[in-house]
Amino acid sequence: MLSLLNPTTLNLREDEALVINCQNWLRYLSDDRKGSRQSLSLRDAFLNLIKGLNPRIVLLVDEDCDLSASSLTSRITTCFNHLWIPFDALETFLPKDSGQRAEFESDIGQKIENIISFEGHQRIERLECGVQMSQRMKNVGYLNVQFCDETVREVKGLLDEHSSGWGMKREEGMLVLTWKGNSCVFATAWVPCEIRDHVGMDASLP
């Protein structure tokens, strides 16, 4: 179905802008290249496809963790260094007999099973950290758009209303949600190079 999409089929009016939100989505697309090194992975092919739709902005949000390595040892090490965070947050906010906590812990357990029990195309999730994903976006023809200071202040204000364990930092064009100083989730904004050159966009998002 996605292959049928193009700027014409979207039928956007002149006063409309296309915004594409890729929150927690690219992790499900394989980053393996089939055949030669020049061939595109499904992940890169999807990014090229949505770039062809001439979006005004593309938002990319996901866990800041690299679980794409082919080495099982590497994936287990990264898993251990990252997935303690949701367990620790659950311990802080929800009682042990909470049904909601049990659901969250079950989801984390499925993620761990996916990381250590499956190889190749059987692995459903293939997370990349924010730095790796940013480089991928640049490689396929996107330019990073910085978040403005006002946006950063608003996000920090929202976090200050919750537990002191949560924080935020700016890092290499990303906003990164942290738990006790450890990176959890990254958020970035992108425009296709052609769109930015055409409309003369500023370097930051309001």
TrEMBL record:
Localization annotation: Nucleus
A GO CC term assigned to this protein in UniProt: nucleus
Alphabetized Pfam families for the sequence: GRAS
Residue ranges that the Swiss-Prot or TrEMBL entry lists as coiled coil: none
Annotated spans, SAW: 117-191
Keywords: Nucleus, Transcription, Transcription regulation
Principal location listed in the UniProt entry: nucleus
Keyword Transcription annotated: yes
The family this protein is said to belong to: Belongs to the GRAS family.
Protein name (record): Uncharacterized protein
Organism: Vigna angularis var. angularis
Lineage: Eukaryota, Viridiplantae, Streptophyta, Embryophyta, Tracheophyta
Gene that specifies this protein: Vigan.07G088500
